[in-house]
Amino acid sequence: ALERLDQPLTVEHLARQARMSSRHLARHFRQLTGTTPLQWLHAQRVRHAQELLETTNATVDTIATATGMGTAATLRRHFHRSVGVPPDTYRRTFRP
């Protein structure tokens, strides 16, 4: 899944790849990781966005697409919820 963060991924798709039901995947995933597949996916996308904000001059729109968040608004919402600051503020801590 990490190589495909920019693509739309669903629990149903991941379950098909793992050859199990969506419910079984979600239950098993939560037992192993303590989080849901969707929460994990959002966290990975935010981590990738952090890396891009730290190392590139890409716009938030471009980063939203590259991380699979779709829109800048969606990226901003998940990023702020996870990191505590908006993407632009986060970037300024690395690129004053």
TrEMBL record:
One of its GO terms (molecular function) is DNA-binding transcription factor activity. Keywords: DNA-binding, Transcription, Transcription regulation. SMART domains: HTH_ARAC. InterPro entries: AraC_XylS_family_regulators, Homeodomain-like_sf, HTH_AraC. The keyword Transcription applies. Residues 1-93 form the HTH araC/xylS-type domain. Pfam families: HTH_18. SUPFAM superfamilies: Homeodomain-like. It comes from the Bacteria. This is Helix-turn-helix domain-containing protein. It comes from Streptomyces alkaliterrae.
